[in-house]
Specification:
The protein is of the alpha/beta class. It has 11 helices and 15 strands. The strands form 4 sheets. Strands 2-8-7-6-5-3-4 form a 7-stranded mixed beta sheet, with helices on both faces. It has a 4-stranded antiparallel beta sheet with strand order 11-12-15-14, covered by helices on one side. Strands 1-13 form a two-stranded parallel ribbon.
C-alpha cells in the first residue's frame, strides 16, 4: 500500500510523469514569452502554444480559432458573463441556471441579477435529477452543467441543447464541462453550444490553465484588454484585434501549463474510467446500514452520507488513515439543499488507483462507520 491513497480525482487530477517532464523541460530549455519576440527561442514557444491549441481543439472537435486559454473554469465562467453582457446590451436578459450547477457556473449570474443586469430562473430537473426536456423555460441564456460534481451523471448535452434551440432559436448556451471532461468525449459541433469550459487540472494538467471554447469568436465583444490580443491601435483609437480566440487573450499566457496540457490530453486517452473500482466500492458500501449512497451505481463518482455522523468528522478520520477523499458541499450548495443534506462524502478515482486501494478504503470505512 502506498503512503497515501488518493481518491479525490474530481477535485484535482494527479499529474502524469509526462506532464511533469514536459513542463520541466520547457522551463529548463525553452522558456520565453509568447507572441512578443522574433528570436528562435521565442518563435519556438509560439509553436508550442500553437501545438497545444491544436491538440485541445482536436480533443473537443473544434477548430484552433475557437480555443481561448484561461486560468481555469471559474475564470472562464466569470468571463463569459462579461462577454455576453458586453455584446448583448440588454438588462432584461433571462438566464436559466440549475441546481446541478457548481458555484462558479451560477454565482456570477446570481450576482449580476442583484444589480438588475439579468434575471435568473431555474431549469427543471426530473425525478432522477437530470434535466427535464419537457419543461424547458423561455430564456436568453442557458447555463448547462454537463455533469454534477455531486451526482456524477453525464447529461445529454447535445439532446438538451437541440431541445432548447427548438424552443428558443436564439438562445445562448454555456456548458460547464469541468467534471464531464475526464469521463466523456466532448464534441462541441455535436453539442452545438456557444461556449464550453473546462480546467486543465481536472485531466492531469497543471493548475492555472483552462480552456474556453467560443463557437463564433468574431461575434463576441472582448472582456479584457492589453498586450497580445490586438494587432495595432489606429490613429482614431480603433483597435485591430487578433482573429479567433486569440483576441480574448490579453496579457502573458500561462505558458508552462499550456505546454503541459498537451501531454495531459495524450495520457487521458489511455484511461478506462475506473468504473470497476467504483462498482466494487458501491456494492460494498451498500451493505453498510448507516451509509446512504446518493449516486447511481453507474455514476462516474461515488457520493454518500452517513447517519449520525458529520461528513467533516468522517473526512478527518479517513485523513489520519492517509486516505484522501472530498467531504463537504463540493462548492455545489444547491444540489445539497435539494437533497436536504448539509454535505456529502465523495470518492472519485483516477488511473493511478488500484483494486488493492479500493479494498483498503472500504475496509477503513467499515471500521469507522461499523
Amino acid at each position: 500500500m502506498k503512503k497515501f491513497v488518493y481518491m479525490d480525482a474530481s477535485a484535482s487530477w494527479l499529474k502524469p510523469q509526462s506532464v511533469i517532464e514536459s513542463e520541466a523541460d520547457f522551463l529548463a530549455n525553452s522558456y520565453a514569452n509568447a507572441g512578443r519576440g522574433i528570436c528562435g527561442r521565442a518563435e519556438k514557444v509560439d509553436d508550442l502554444v500553437l501545438e497545444s491549441r491544436r491538440k485541445i481543439a482536436n480533443f473537443i472537435g473544434a477548430s484552433e480559432k475557437n480555443i481561448v486559454w484561461t486560468n481555469g473554469s471559474t475564470d472562464a465562467l466569470n468571463r463569459i458573463v462579461n462577454i455576453i453582457k458586453n455584446t448583448v446590451a440588454d438588462k432584461n436578459l433571462i438566464v436559466a441556471v440549475s441546481d446541478l450547477d457548481h458555484h462558479s457556473a451560477r454565482l456570477p449570474w446570481e450576482e449580476l441579477s442583484k444589480t438588475g443586469g439579468c434575471k435568473t430562473i431555474l431549469l427543471n430537473l426530473d425525478k432522477n435529477l437530470d434535466f427535464d426536456f419537457d419543461k424547458i423555460p423561455q430564456a436568453d441564456v442557458f447555463v448547462i452543467t454537463a455533469m454534477s460534481n455531486v451526482l456524477g451523471v453525464p447529461q445529454d448535452v447535445s439532446g438538451f441543447i437541440k431541445t432548447v434551440r427548438a424552443k428558443n432559436p436564439n438562445a445562448i448556451t454555456v456548458v460547464d464541462a469541468a467534471q464531464y471532461v475526464a469521463h466523456e468525449k466532448i464534441d462541441v459541433k455535436k453539442f452545438d453550444c456557444d461556449f464550453l469550459v473546462f480546467s486543465g487540472h481536472k485531466i492531469g494538467a497543471d493548475t492555472g490553465v483552462g480552456v474556453m471554447y467560443i463557437k463564433n469568436p468574431e461575434f463576441w465583444q472582448c472582456d479584457k484588454f492589453g498586450g497580445g490580443m490586438l494587432k495595432r491601435i489606429l490613429d482614431n483609437g480603433d483597435l485591430i484585434l487578433n482573429q479567433g480566440g486569440e483576441k480574448f487573450e490579453a496579457g502573458t499566457l500561462p505558458l508552462t501549463q499550456i505546454v503541459g496540457i498537451k501531454s495531459a490530453v495524450e495520457e487521458l486517452k489511455y484511461w478506462d474510467g475506473g468504473q470497476d473500482l467504483l462498482d466494487y466500492m458501491y456494492d460494498e458500501l451498500s451493505k453498510i446500514e448507516r451509509i446512504k449512497i446518493i449516486t447511481a451505481r453507474k455514476a462516474k463518482i461515488l457520493s454518500f452520507v452517513i447517519r449520525d455522523m458529520h461528513v467533516l468528522d468522517f473526512g478527518g478520520m479517513m485523513g489520519v488513515r492517509n486516505i484522501c477523499l472530498r467531504v463537504g458541499n463540493m462548492c455545489a450548495s444547491w444540489i445539497h439543499n435539494k437533497l436536504d443534506i448539509d454535505g456529502s462524502v465523495r470518492i472519485s478515482v483516477g488511473p493511478w488507483n488500484t483494486k488493492e486501494e479500493a479494498k483498503y478504503v472500504v475496509e477503513n470505512i467499515k471500521k469507522i462507520v461499523g
